[in-house]
Amino acid sequence: MNFELTEEQKLIQETARSFAASELEPLAARLDREDDRPAFLANLKKLAELGFMGLNVKEAYGGSEAGGVAFSLAMTEIARVCASTAVTVSVNNMVCEVIQAVGTEEQKRAYIPRICSGEYAAGSFALTETGAGSDPSAMCTRAVQDGDHFVLDGSKIFITSAPYAGVFVVWAVTDKDAPKGKGISCFLVEAGTPGLIIGKQEHKMGQHASATNEVIFDNCRVPASSMMGRLNDGFRIAVAELTGGRIGIGSLGLGIGLAAMDFATRYATERTQFGQKISSFQALQWMMADGYTELEAARLLLMNAAFRKETGRSFAKEASMAKLFATEAANRACYKAMQMLGGYGYTQDFPIERYTRDARITSIYEGTSEIQRVIISREILRNFS
Ligand SMILES: Cc1cc2nc3c(=O)[nH]c(=O)nc-3n(C[C@H](O)[C@H](O)[C@H](O)COP(=O)(O)OP(=O)(O)OC[C@H]3O[C@@H](n4cnc5c(N)ncnc54)[C@H](O)[C@@H]3O)c2cc1C
Hints:
By secondary structure, this protein is of the alpha+beta class. It has ten helices and ten strands. Helix 1 packs antiparallel against helix 2 (37-49) and helix 6 (234-270) runs antiparallel to helix 9. The site of flavin-adenine dinucleotide (FAD) has 21 residues, from strand 1, strand 3 and helix 10. Flavin-adenine dinucleotide binds at residues 91, 125-128, 133-134, 158-160, 204, 212, 361, 364-368, 370-371, 374.
């Protein structure tokens, strides 16, 4: 077994780390407090130019073809500094990968290079609805065929990057009488298509620079050629693509957790109480030991899931385990980090409160921790039946 990263993986990790330090760090705290979308989008463009929007996408479509491990490493480095940027990069990669996996050659050539190059600031993955979150098969958005078009009606919520996405991957019911999950299809809808309306933006607890909006389809006509994959096969596509996305969100959680522990550990070596550095107290040393041990375990779970993905092995259980553990460990790391800073950790003068807010959503989106446990236990029980 070889735990060494390849030279290419090290290079991508180092490039992400130095970009985050030079371009994201000066902005991250300000973008948490105030809206400056042009500055946020400018960094996304630079990341696209560096090849971070299609890390697991073929070079023929403008991707970097660097693989799932490199993607995980890059996500962690970006999230160590700016979780809002990281989630946008993760969703962009996921959108590119779903088009690459099930799109026609024409769809791949039309949309993937635009996301990879930064011509489109983002792509959106529009699955969730008010009545269909953990259970997306309960969706109500309809796509009705009308000659050589489909007409979409309904609405999605919580859609990352919607106001600046160039293209939306949208799931809609195409056979309302089919058994649950068997009558859903997947479409590519370009921004600006009449009837596609960007609705209200959510006011979130964290990840403020990343927009999260309602998306409404009101008599939205798209050519029948916008369908991706086969008619009524969309739910299977969503489930498959979310599996890869979970490695991205787990890696993002790991990045936030590491940032919190690094900050708190450095602080503990500088802060004095009772005439000694607080890092000399065993209570804090154990927080460090536990925090970093959990994050290292998270990293290994993520590397395993990413390696299995890029080598063509099954990885659904491993991706869910990695996402579950890494995001919960990240939340625990933020809790410990705040404890290590005492009252200062609770103020906006230090980044721990931002990390805590940014980490919280990672165990909710792209499948809650409870849903990861459902998937993991289902995969385990498969071997016992
Ligand atoms: C900031 C943000 C960004 C997002 N980005 C996107 C995006 O880009 N695209 C997109 O499509 N969606 C997106 N989402 C939606 C996100 O994926 C959902 O919020 C998430 O899947 C949970 O769905 P829900 O909010 O409806 O919660 P619910 O499904 O209502 O869950 C509520 C609670 O019930 C639990 N629960 C539900 N079912 C079960 C079960 N079977 N067993 C045990 N427990 C269960 C859940 O774990 C949770 O604790 C985003 C959400 C947020 C907040």
